[in-house]
Known about the structure:
Strand content: 15-25%
Bound molecules: benzoic acid, fe (iii) ion
Number of strands: 14
Radius of gyration: 22 Å
Number of helices: 7
Order of helices and strands: HHHHHEEEEEEEHEEEEEHEE
Shape: elongated
Structural class: alpha/beta
Strand order of the largest sheet: 1-5-4-9-10-11
Largest sheet: 6 strands, mixed
Distance between the termini: 42 Å
Amino acid sequence: MRQFNEDTLTAAVVERFQKAKDERFRQIVTSAVKHLHAFAREVHLTEEEWFEGIKYLTAVGQKCDDKRQEFILLSDILGLSMMIVALNHKTVPGATEATVLGPFFAHGAKEYEYGADLREGASLKGEDVYVSGRVVSLDGQPVANALLDIWQAKADGIYDVQTEGGFELRGRVKANAKGEYAFKSYKPKFYSVPVDGPVGDLIRATGNHHMRPAHMHAIVSAPGYQQVITHVFVEGDPYLDGDAVFAVKDSLIGRYVKVNDAAEAKRLGMPNPFLKLTWDFKLAPDAGVKARKKIAASDAVA
Ligand code: BEZ
Ligand code: FE
């Protein structure tokens, strides 16, 4: 076969890739070829334009290192990360909804018991908040010994892993046998996604803002239950309607309530006044669900 033109080339490439042994890989790679060719045809891509595209993707790769994952950020901004979450995490009614992982998850955070203080060693202060709640099954039964991997930005909107130094406002918090968990932290604030790289150029070129509404991240796992990668957003945040990465779900908006009660503050080991977030995570059972890879301490995500 030779002498291809814009009408025959796609089928020729697809046919060549049929030799791939793995069926799923073959499906993905041939579909990607079909869509890429269709895209080039639709916009009648010029050579100069495609070279700009190649330069752009090269710059995205060059911006990546062991701390910065510009490709995850690109996927987030394009809405592709949330598309993949939507396809793969059809919410079981009643279960906590999944949302984007983002580029700032890190393995190996310290383990904490009930009531832990994630503010310890923090380089910046924020509004003190006592976060507590339960990890429960769909019928409200406590899920014993769940693990909550928690992380959030510092008061300046920067994550610990974006700078030198140790972990901050990050920890693996163990729930107790009754499914209860609690920890002390700071109220999250809205922040900008990193815009000093090619993804920032894309955001500016499309005339959009680069803010994420305030949130804390959580990955909640327990044996026998589906792991959920989720956020808790802050009620009233000005960016809830325009999240740069399309990750907001109404069911994930939490209320930070001001508590002015010296006795309660003393009981919880908080300053008075303080904020309180009460939040339950509801996990769906693992049974009958196609096995999905869970994030574990040994995985390398970013
Ligand atoms: C985050 O929430 O940490 C995040 C998610 C997507 C892009 C940038 C940051
Ligand atoms: Fe975040």
